Amino acid sequence: MITLAVGLGTCGIAAGAQEVYDELLRQPDPRYILRKTSCNGHCYNEPIVEVFQNEELIGAFYQVKASSVKSLLETLPSVWGQPSSRQGQEQRLVLENCGLIDPENMNDYISRGGYVALETVRSLLPMEVVSMIKASGLRGRGGAGFPTGLKWQFALNNPSQPKVVIANADEGDPGAFMDRAVLEGDPHRVIEGLLIAAHATGANSAYIYIRAEYPLAIKRLRHAIADVTAEGKLGTVLLEIKEGAGAFVCGEETALMASMEGERGMPRFKPPFPAESGLWGQPTTINNVETLAAIPWIIRHGAEAFSKWGTEKSRGTKVFSLAGKVKYPGLVEVEMGTSLRSMIEQLGGGTSSGLPIKAVQMGGPSGGCVPESLLDTALTYEDLQATGAIMGSGGVIVMDEATCMIDIAKYFLNFIQNESCGKCTFCRIGTKRMFEILSRIAEGKGELADIDELIDLSSQISKASLCQLGKTAANPVLTTLQYFKDEYLEHIVEKKCRAHVCRSLIRYHINSDVCTGCTLCAKRCPVSCIKGVTKGPHRIDASHCTKCGTCLSVCRFGAVTVSTGVHS
Amino acid sequence: MTPQWNDLASELLQRFGDETRYAIPILQAIQTEQGYIPIPLLEAIASKAQHLQANQLYGVATFYSQFTFTPKGKHTIKVCMGTACFVKGAQQIVDAFKSALSIEIGETTPDKLFTLQTVACLGCCSLAPAVMIDGHVHGQVTQESVAALLKAKGFNL
User: Fold this and answer.
1) Complex ipTM, two decimals?
2) B residues 36..65 contacting A (CB < 8 A)
3) Same domain for A519 and A476?
4) Residue A228 sits in the same domain as residue A321
């Protein structure tokens, strides 16, 4: 029997997968069963129709359009595309069901071993479950990497009742989308993990705090919660969704709790830690989505099966989201300890532009830029931290030679100064000053003393901020200064942006020997600053040019050139 | 204070409850149903509630980016400014929307048709640059496709 599976995750739908699915529905064919699934991680090929024969993947149709559905059906059972070459290079534990099951069908999840772990756990003592998770070596996947078993132990040891467990689905790091994919593709898995956490810590209330920017994930979670409730799987646990209201800092656990309590999402001083006094003063355990999604697998296969993957201190696998200037953006799940280079070059296919990789940004705004020379770094908590970046939640942004590192540092500081909650003065004002200095450098108005000022501010902000947002706010600047200081110096001294990104430092010209006078650039210029007659050389009026780059991108003759620097 | 807000305030307190923890759900309901947060409504709620004060509701509403104090347009455009979108030219996309609609970020067109916003990350990084219009994500947006996206929502160039 042949099954056609259409990936209906947010990315698939945006690429047109819903239309493809609807078209397949309109053309029923006795030869196949149609199944809707979610993202399988191969986002670069969406919309994807995967073909299974007796549940075994035999191939796929890539970048399908609704209009090509008819010819697709005529082709069957042969297919256009081979199963991705990524298969076999990944170790899928957390993502084992993503792209295979219908996320809105609980029986699909159950048929692949779903809720077996919950049954198992409920016949065990909480202490036994905690010991199992401890033995697995699982560490928090949200960023900090705190041992999950130990976190559960603290909450279990607290005799105070009632207790709370929370799934942190406030995935805010720009560039990270693994939690969205798991929630959209396998929502029951997160619920099962959360219910196991509730049993292990003795909690009767469970919440999923999810950001409002993920409407499809919220819809699928609500569907899944209705199903587990109807099936009586919740036991005595009350499970509820809490929607965020748009604040990056609410990913920080104490800010998240403040937000749930109905207040401004401002971090609180620790101690007391959530396990001592968390939501409404109750002992609280907060775990990231990916952490919880690993739990059912660990219970079903045993702690040893999990801990045999990875390195001594970083056990198991990790899901990374590859994005930016990478050829095959999407999700990959690899064994911890895999090198950054092999993940990007073999699974990601290198850069999309074909230009050399300049750096890889890891860990979002709290992370840093790892230069090409350090790409052989192993993907473990410790090795990444040694570079100045962090594992973070697993967002990986590939940057090629056309990326300006000052521009990137400026981007992150702008993000942080926008998202700082304002509680700590150094974070609130210091990040603003850093952003202003970086803007000055990008405009060619920087001075050498600015670099010392940036370093000084970085250290002050880190020392005088309460939460990790502030403590790590300067990391994007510190890592770019560490590895790309020459670019800072070029901007300051030579007024040069080698990546041709900083608009104040570049100039566009039209080479009159090459220009054919086709007039295309003049027609497309949004500020009409290109003058010339048809079939005659054109000229850019620099006083009105906004450096948008449209002329460069539309010229078919290579007549538009860019220069930068005082000596050019 | 208009009677309209008084009735709505009572209804909201009944629907959610008079406790601090319901501040955000109440504000979310107001934002969804009214399209913005009318300050007289917050005052009406506070005058009826035991545990929700006007200053607290206002404080919460100003903290989170979901809430606005001015009515939004019929269509809300959210241009993603996540890292992946940023390195793939999100700034040019924002500029294209700004120049096509002749408004700045956070503003609404005079005909109340479009509100332009930027968001930190839509989590659709593989589609960068991405734009969300009325909850629907559009990927690989180009300066050229901005006009088509607007036209599909009734924008006359």
Assistant:
1) 0.92
2) 56, 59-60, 63-65
3) no
4) no
